[in-house]
Design a protein that fits this description.
By secondary structure, the protein is mostly beta strands. It folds into two domains: 94 residues, Immunoglobulin-like (Sandwich); 655 residues, Maltoporin, Chain A (Beta Barrel), CATH 2.40.170. It has a 22-stranded antiparallel β-barrel. Strands 10-16-17-14-15 form a five-stranded mixed sheet. A four-stranded antiparallel sheet has the order 3-2-5-6. Strand 44 and strand 45 form a beta hairpin. The chain is globular. The two termini are 29 Å apart. One of its GO terms (biological process) is siderophore transmembrane transport.
């Protein structure tokens, strides 16, 4: 911290006072509008309004085209002179539909979405306030365009366009969250993020490797956390909110507090959230196969199977979590803007519910199977500089360090030996990004990136009777994973109606691992990978009228082998064990998109995107031999040897479609649906449905807005997936699926009916809540190991100050 403050103070020369303040309000209610973007494309200047609808625009003096826009309102363009003549008071009209907005996930810089060929959606703080998602995974699912799988209540693994886990990229304040141990199996890392502390969420669909590097195959999820706000007067700007929430399905008790303290050059924001969830109750009406009416409890020297009083409770699924964020912002003048952010998240241990469903000889296979505390910490320094020289107009330096810790604890039923594996990753990253406009019509985005992950993994066993602890195999080898990259994107306005963009990135991956051969006789003790990857994209956006947008994009993406791919040892399913394979190379994706968005008479909006992705040299799990043997003893059981290999080709194609309808008297209707089909090559040359290709899913909403009241009645739904349509690797997982008339697992279709409401009681208080799953359905999202909540009553109260 001392060095960071020293750096800030050294750069802080010539602190200038701030000039002119603009105030932006809603025309209908006269309420201030927060997070309005005020920008000029030519100079790359931008600023955003605070909670009072205010922003400093002294840097825009004498500029002729100042764009003022935010989601849900009609954009306007004015000159500085016009704003001055209006006393810098601006009123925005509510827009029925938007075909453009300000986005950052396309290039890490603020852009108008009508210049970005890829499909991008935004989830705003207003959406979060109405929907009340419990986790960041639930926040993503509220969009109706991101599918979320869960193996336990403390989890959530997004699926985008048939890809998931290590084939998707997470970005927090512009920093890559993916680490060298992100696995191809389901991930829970997204729950480390705090929905209360997220200012805006964007999802970029399709390849994002040109900007974000390895893993950005199916899409990019970009989370922007709360930004400290300055004052524009001589008085400090103090604002914040305190929230309390209760949900009945899991007896949720959540509290949140954030406080912003702003001066003219310095601003601080502190955020804290605490969650506590009891075991999750599922619905009454649905497949009986989802009911597990027992749990295991240790009594004396034996494990006992306990029959539950309430068979709808999913035990064990309870967990708790805390999140802390501290940000400091320093803006000595209009050219420099520095932000330091500290993030910390920690969960309690929590049971992996699907593993507790496994049986062996009619008894539970496991007495214990828990994830240990999941810890994430990030220190992030972001330095932005605006200039007008031959090299750049804007420069951004991001220096980040992240710490990840996760663990697994398991013990077989009526066995005394408890296995405990702990993984730690220290991740360092440096990003240097530039923007340069060479003319009114041409803008270059370019940069360099360096990432290094140090992986440390330990294993031990403990006899719960004697207390004797012994060393045991670790999950991963001690490893260092490095990524070095350069990229460039050119955005060219061919005309006022047509924007063309093209980009390329070269990435070089280095991986060094040291294997412990004292437990397994690997035919190697070290592994090294040095591979390069070249990716590119080209796309265009055509706007023949203000009510029609046509876009297309061709792009490639890659995923480099990481430590999880080449080095882990784990049981993928009963009777199988995955062993290391150091002979891997990157997998490549080739993608094509075609989108159309059309507004009809300011009453109906239609948005359709079709896509096709082909994945070559796909990293998949296949049968393998270790020292010439196809089976080894693992945890006391003879198990088939498998390994990750470049052994398949996969194809995913589909359509995302949405329609919005403006109805009279404050009502509106919208539907978002997703159709996708995926297939992957099997070892015998045949094909199977792709593992992460979700069934048809979507959401339909009936909205009402009037003055201080917002209400929504929505239906979430998922299509069925029959046994013959399940991926081959899913057909043996009888513990997570319902059984059909032939006793085969399948994923039934389901729906939930939900009511949400938000009311602003006063300038200080607002109340929100609703009823989820009104008809109390017992349902389970595709490939999930735990059922969704039954009928769930939510009540949230927020105080603003």
């Amino acid at each position: 911290m001392r060095y960071i403050f020293t750096l800030i103070l050294l750069i802080g020369y010539a602190i200038n006072g701030f000039g002119q303040t603009i105030t932006i309000r809603e025309k209908e209610s006269n309420e201030p509008i927060e997070l309005v973007t005020v920008s000029n494309v030519k100079t790359n200047l931008y600023t955003t309004t605070n909670a009072k609808g205010q922003a400093d625009i002294s840097a825009f003096n004498n500029i002729e085209k100042i764009e003022i826009r935010t989601l849900g309102y009609k954009s306007i363009t004015k000159s500085y002179a016009e704003l001055e003549s209006e006393n810098f008071e601006v009123y925005l009209e509510i827009s029925n539909f938007n075909l453009d907005e300000v986005v950052i996930s396309g290039s890490r810089w603020r852009q108008n979405s009508d210049d970005v060929a890829s499909k991008i959606i935004s989830i705003t703080a207003k959406d979060v306030a109405l929907q009340n998602p419990q986790t960041a995974a639930d926040l993503l699912s509220t969009s109706g365009k991101v599918f979320v799988q869960k193996s336990q209540q403390g989890g959530g693994s997004p699926i985008i366009r048939g890809f998931a886990t290590s084939r998707l990229l997470y970005s927090i304040d512009g920093v890559r969250m993916n680490t060298a141990i992100f696995r191809s199996g389901n991930l829970q890392n997204v729950i480390s993020l705090d929905p209360f502390a997220i200012e805006n969420t964007e999802v970029l669909f399709g390849p994002g490797s040109v900007i974000y590097g390895s893993d950005a195959i199916g899409g990019v999820m970009s989370f922007q956390t709360l930004t400290p706000k300055f004052t524009f007067t001589d008085k400090p700007y103090i604002t914040g909110k305190a929230s309390a929430r209760y949900s009945s399905a899991n007896n949720e008790k959540t509290g949140h507090l954030d406080v912003n303290l702003g001066f003219k050059s310095w601003a601080f924001i502190t955020s804290f959230t605490s969650w506590d969830y009891n075991h999750l109750r599922q619905g009454r009406h649905g497949p009986d196969d989802y009911i597990k009416d027992f749990y295991v409890q240790r009594q004396g020297d034996s494990d006992m199977v306990i029959n539950q009083d309430d068979e709808l409770l999913q035990i064990p699924s309870a967990y708790s979590q805390i999140n802390l964020m501290q940000k400091i912002r320093f803006k000595p003048n209009e050219k420099w803007d520095l932000q330091y952010g500290f993030h910390y998240s920690e969960t309690s241990p929590y049971g992996r519910y699907d593993r507790h469903n496994r049986l062996k000889n009619g008894l539970p296979r496991y007495a214990e199977w828990d994830y240990g505390p999941q810890i994430w910490m990030m220190n992030n320094l972001n330095i932005n500089h605006t200039a007008n020289n031959a090299v750049f107009d804007q420069m951004s330096i991001r220096l980040a360090h992240q710490w990840f810790e996760e663990s697994r604890l398991s013990r077989n039923f009526n066995k005394t030996s408890r296995s405990h594996q702990v993984e730690e990753v220290s991740a360092y990253s440096v990003n240097l990004d530039f923007v340069k406009s060479t003319s009114n019509n041409n803008t270059f985005f370019y940069g360099v990136e360096y990432v290094v992950d140090d992986v440390n993994s330990k294993g031990k066993t403990k006899d719960i009777i004697t207390g004797i602890t012994e060393a045991a195999p670790s999950r991963y080898p001690v490893s260092t994973w490095q990524s070095l990259a350069v990229y460039v994107t050119d955005e060219y306005k061919v005309s006022e109606d047509f924007t063309l963009s093209a980009g390329a990135r070269y990435n070089h991956i280095l991986l060094d691992s040291d294997f412990d051969t004292s437990f397994y006789s690997f035919p190697f003790s070290k592994a090294s990978i040095s591979k390069g990857a070249l990716t590119g994209s080209i796309g265009g956006v055509y706007r023949p009228t203000k009510t029609l947008v046509l876009s297309t994009n061709l792009g490639t993406a890659f995923r480099a082998p990481n430590v999880d791919d080449i080095g882990k040892v784990f049981d993928s399913e009963p009777g199988s064990v995955v062993v290391p394979n150091p002979d891997l190379k990157p997998e490549y994706a080739y993608n094509a998109d075609l989108g159309i968005a059309k507004v009809f008479g300011d009453i109906v909006k239609l948005d359709v995107t079709a896509y096709y992705t082909s994945l070559k040299d796909a990293l998949v799990r296949r049968d393998f031999k270790l020292n010439g043997r196809d089976s080894i003893i693992y945890e006391g059981e003879l198990s088939q040897v498998q390994a990750i290999q470049n052994a398949a080709v996969a194809h995913v194609y589909g359509v995302q479609a949405g329609v919005e309808l403006k109805l009279p008297r404050g009502f509106g209707f919208s539907t978002d649906v997703n159709f996708q089909k995926g297939e992957e090559e099997l070892e015998n040359g045949k094909t199977s449905p792709a593992r992460h290709s979700s069934p048809f899913f979507g959401v339909s909403r009936l909205n009402y807005k009037k003055n201080k009241l917002r209400m929504e009645l929505n239906v979430n739904y998922q299509g069925k997936r029959d046994f013959n349509d399940l991926p081959e690797g899913e057909k043996g997982k009888t513990e997570i699926y319902a059984l059909d008339e032939n006793g085969n697992p399948h994923a039934p279709s389901w729906y939930t009916l939900n009511y949400k409401a938000y009311y602003k009681l006063s300038n200080t208080f607002d109340i929100s809540g609703g009823v989820e799953n009104i008809t109390d359905q017992r349902y389970r999202s595709y490939s999930s190991g735990i059922s969704g909540a039954g009928r769930n009553f939510i009540l949230s109260l927020t105080a603003h100050f």
